[in-house]
Amino acid sequence: MPTPVPLQTFAWIATHPWLYPVLEAVHIVGIALLLGSLFLVELRVWGFGATLPLPELARFGLTLSATGFAVAAFSGLVMASSQAAELIGNRAFLLKMLLLSAAGGNALWFHGRGSLRLADGLARLQTLISTALWLAVVLCGRWIAYA
Cα Rg for the chain, rounded, in angstroms? Predict the structure, then answer.
């Protein structure tokens, strides 16, 4: 059985002169890619940009969103590992993790019911929930430093 890594092992990341700021910048780029492309697809579900075919826009936009999520998740995990002991007690961080789970659940529900194909009233409600959850994730992420 492997030996658990002590929480302090990655603490040097937070104090590195350029690594942590670079990780923060990468995290922001990932969030921008995730939310920017997701929001375009959600607007299309609402009927904006009706000349753009939804399946093609969704395939492109959601691929960019998934890439943005992967970049943000990786950089976020590395940053969180550098201050894990502090974050475990940080309410904004814990709320952010809860909201991320809810956003993931909403995405599973959206795609599981075929909401892109249906583009109905419930799909539009799901996009509103998605936007609200992701904005709350961003706000909580920003609030971590002040909580």
Answer: 17
Looking at residue 10, what is its pLDDT?
Answer: 81
Q: What is the dihedral of CA 23, 29, 30, 34, to 10 degrees?
A: 160
pTM: 0.88
Direct distance between the N- and C-terminal alpha carbons of the chain, in angstroms, rounded to an integer:
36
Amino acid identity, position 85: A
Domain boundaries, the chain: 18-146
| CA-closest candidate to residue 73, choices 35, 108, 31 | 31
CA distance 69 to 33: 8
Q: Which of 27, 23, 26, 60 lies closest to 44, judged by CA? A: 60
* Gap between the Cα atoms of 127 and 118, Å rounded: 13
Please give the pLDDT value at position 70.
98
